[in-house]
Amino acid sequence: MGRIENLAARYRRHIGAPWQRNLAGDQKAIFVVYPKTDERRLRARLDLFEMATTSNGHDWRSLDLTGVFARWMAAADYREVYFEEPDTLAMKLRSDFVQFVAGLLRDALTADGVDEDTVVAVRGVACLFGFTRVSLVLREIANDIRGRLLVFFPGEYEDKNYRLLDARDGWNYLAVPITLHNGVSDQ
User: Fold this and answer.
1) What fold is seen in the domain 3-184?
2) Model's pTM, two decimal places?
3) Radius of gyration of the chain from Cα atoms?
4) How far is Cα 135 from Cα 167, in angstroms, rounded to an integer?
5) Using 50, 70 and 90 to split pLDDT, how confident is the model at 187?
6) Where are the domains of the chain?
7) Quick check: helix, strand or coil at residue 13?
């Protein structure tokens, strides 16, 4: 069995267990952590995670953040200025871009038909690297998670810290990690 299939099997066991209903938003998040080199393999096998979800009686919704920076930049009023003077972009990234991404995610989490038995799966978070932190976006939407938020996370998880794309700095987040090394970690 390959790495992605292993992760999907571990996810299936986790998602099949009875769901606690009285969790805080960040505790309703699940991070499937995989090596960044497996991004294409994971995308090709997303159906394994969807089937694991639906076969356990939960609904599945999907959101792809790939290209989110380009969409945000294309809609920016002063995009030409940002290209001429990139330093002026830094402040907008810390505020407007985080809110833009959080808004897309919030729309998916609160869409019609999304309830406490729905998994909203997010892929493409690697495209946030260098522009903002995943933790800043998740902080904005934690209270909007009704069922479960599944984040496909190319990076590492170690000692309760997540590191996107194996970057040096990481952050501690209350999500349930599903990894190749230890399956579902107890929090």
Assistant:
1) Rossmann fold (3.40.50)
2) 0.90
3) 17
4) 14
5) very low
6) 3-184
7) helix
